[in-house]
Design goal:
Length: 431
């Protein structure tokens, strides 16, 4: 006989607390009856009238504004098998993988508050992030540990009733979700504009063709003939256990985002990116502990570090740069040893080799030229070589100042101290 997995129940309670849901003190399992090849018993252990939790919401950031997406319910159920479709030469074949059958999963149902494919993608990303912060799930969509089905309908402008809904499956990436919804919206609008009716059904997203394909008719709740599962006793969740679990929760992404804005005076945009993974936010805070210039650190993480990580599809933990290495490099800029431009070269070398910034600067001779006499000679030579441009600058073409600075940087291979060089150049052009 089936037995309730205590860890799965605890995970569901964690998710319910994190998403502001009302947790039921009395919950019950039900049998969901339907026939499909991936369900060998002919029914699925799920929940219907008495789920683990109801209500709640998740906040997402859209165009720098917070939007609240309501949650209908959170319930536990057993997983079904996995269908693998193989269109061969002799006709279509389907295989069934039963390895995950009976494994407990948490299903989170959202309210119809999502209005665009972009909002749907953002909602899923934030939900996945919450689960990662809670350490409930690894969030891998391709392997199926984090899955999504989307119900979508369109209606005429001004209509209050929702249109006929269509369920979309096979959405195993955020990009697929957005593309599938965009296609399905256009498909449904076209049907209505032609005067036809939308069929309530389940459709499969075909990424290769970029279309949705009809899979089967979509059932209503009464078609499943729910009734209490006689093999499982009702679940009574004590308040003291909920409170104990609540105290054990990690800091959640939206709380961390708010704290980053208040504590570090970061723009909301920066905070949103920095909390996008636990590793990234930890890396940022480790840097701030060593070097109290949060915005400077944020700029380097969002610019240079994420550029390299995204290019190689790596996580922060997989790169050779540590918080101490990044901070050491930033301190070299502060001391005038290297310029911001040279620092980008140093950063790339650190990322590629794992060498310390001080060693890279010495090995490659990247120390910034700050000697006034040396810079005066270089500036004087550039002025002498460009008399026409000097004349034009003195006639009011002040944009040429950038040309002269460019020539100084070129002559010094980018090693001239820009502040000192700029002051010397201004003084000499006045004379």
């Amino acid at each position: 006989l089936p037995v309730l997995n205590k860890s799965a129940l605890e995970f569901a309670i964690k998710v319910a607390i994190a998403t502001n849901c009302e947790i039921a003190n009395f919950s019950q399992f039900a049998r969901k009856n339907y026939f499909y090849p991936d369900l060998p018993k002919g029914y699925q252990i799920s929940q219907y009238e008495l789920p683990i939790a109801k209500g709640g919401w998740i906040e997402i950031l859209i165009n720098n504004k917070i939007k609240k997406i309501g949650l209908t319910r959170i319930h536990l159920e057993e997983d079904a098998g996995k269908l693998l479709h193989d269109p061969g030469k002799k006709g279509n074949k389907s295989y069934i993988d039963f390895n995950r059958t009976g494994v407990p999963l948490i299903e989170i149902v959202s309210e119809p508050d999502i209005r665009t494919p972009e909002q749907a993608s953002k909602y899923l990303q934030m939900l996945r992030l919450i689960l990662l912060y809670l350490e409930v799930c690894d969030g891998n969509m391709e392997q199926g540990s984090f899955r999504c089905d989307a119900n979508i309908s369109v209606r005429l402008k001004g209509e209050k009733r929702f249109g006929t809904k269509v369920e979309l499956k096979n959405l195993n990436s955020f990009r697929f979700v957005q593309r599938a919804l965009e296609y399905e919206i256009d498909r449904q609008i076209k049907i209505l504009e032609e005067g036809d009716e939308i069929v309530q059904e389940t459709r499969l997203w075909d990424e290769e063709k970029g279309i949705t394909i009809s899979m089967r008719g979509k059932e209503e709740a009464h078609d499943y003939r729910y009734f209490p599962d006689p093999d499982l006793v009702p679940v009574v969740i004590e308040k003291s256990w909920i409170e104990k679990i609540a105290k054990s929760l990690n800091e959640l992404p939206f709380a961390k985002r708010e704290r980053f804005v208040k504590e570090y005076n970061l723009p909301l945009y920066d905070a949103e990116i920095l909390i996008s993974s636990v590793e990234l936010s930890d890396f940022f805070e480790a840097c701030v502990k060593l070097y109290n210039k949060p915005k400077v650190i944020s700029n380097w993480i969002m610019g240079e570090l994420l550029k390299e990580l995204n290019r190689e599809h790596k996580k922060v933990s997989e790169c050779s740069i540590t918080p101490l290495m990044l901070v050491s490099m930033l301190k070299l800029i502060d001391k005038g040893v290297i310029s911001g431009k040279i620092a980008k070269t140093v950063f790339e070398e650190m990322y590629r080799t794992g060498k310390l910034p001080e060693d890279i600067v010495k090995e490659k001779g990247l120390i910034q030229i700050s000697n006034i006499e040396e810079l005066e000679k270089i500036v004087s030579q550039i002025i002498e070589e460009n008399p026409d441009k000097v004349s034009n600058y003195l006639s009011g073409q002040e944009k040429l100042f950038g040309f002269f600075m460019g020539q100084i940087m070129k002559a010094t291979s980018g090693k001239a101290n820009p502040q000192i060089a700029s002051k010397i150049l201004k003084d000499k052009l006045k004379k």
